[in-house]
Amino acid sequence: MLLTAVAAFGQLDRKYIQNLPHVDEQRWHFGFILGLGLGDFSTLPSAWTDEAGYSYYSASKGLMPAFMVGMIADLRLCEYLNLRCTPYLTLGERRMNYTCFTPGGKQVGDVATVSIKPTTVDVPFYLKYSGKRYGNIRPYILAGGGPQFNINLNPEEPILLNVFDVQIGFGFGLMIYNEYFRFCPELKFCFGLLDQLNQNHAEIEGTPDLVYTRSVDRLTSRMIAITFNFE
User: Fold this and answer.
1) Domain presence at residue 105
2) Is 172 among the domain residues?
């Protein structure tokens, strides 16, 4: 993105041809999204202990990659402001680490890792504020949010997630005007507002997997996404 911006601004003084000079005047336009994300969970451990008095500390193992694909519907409100809906599908994996401690605070055994594989459909609405166009490049910022639906609910997994969440996000990007379309690399930061952990996981009652749910009080999602929009 930086190299593209430097190259574009370096040509401003050269009177070269602007691509798609009237495309920003369209009332509606559409496009599609391809992207990569890095996501994990923010956890709040609980004070739960098992029958022996052992406690379990839960924490995210770190950012894990995800793949994103979606589409764009954009409404021009005025010269610098657009309202857009960008529904997209995310496929990925997240991992949680669990450490067991005795009543005296001594660690027992190795750290256990649990894999979670959510498949989510997001339907966010963003307000997009664009700067002035310089040659064939135009910067913008955006912010908004919307509902998220988890469509991969496997009751056999140690951790069961809720179906519904609300995500908010903000980011920035560049519109690069080509001969036939706008190519828009974009960086966004997304955060879930609702607790994603389903405590009513009947399939794990009476099993060793119960500790993975009971030792977490709250589980919220977050993600950094780099998307490539074709509009």
Assistant:
1) no
2) yes
pTM of the entire predicted model: 0.87
Instruction: List pLDDT tens digits, range 28-53.
Output: 999 999 999 999 999 998 988 888 88
Q: Domain tally for the chain?
A: 1
pLDDT digits (tens, 9 = 90+) for 168-178: 999 999 999 99
Domain that holds residue 222: 23-46+59-96+114-230
pLDDT at 15 over 70: no
Q: Which of 7-11, 101-105, 171-175, 210-214 has the lowest mean pLDDT?
A: 7-11
On whether residue 213 sits in a domain, the answer given is yes
CATH number at residue 225: 2.40.160.20
Write the DSSP assignment of the chain as a string of letters: -HHHHHHHHHTTTS-PPPSSTTGGG-SEEEEEEEEEEEEEEEEEE---B-TT--EEEEEE---EEEEEEEEEEEEE-SSSEEEEE--EEEEE-EEEEEEEE-TTS-EEEEEEEEEE--EEEE--EEEEEE---BTTEEEEEEEEEEEEEE----TTSSS-B-SEEEEEEEEEEEEEE-SSSEEEEEEEEEEE-S--B-S--GGGTTSTTHHHHHTEEEEEEEEEEEEEEE-
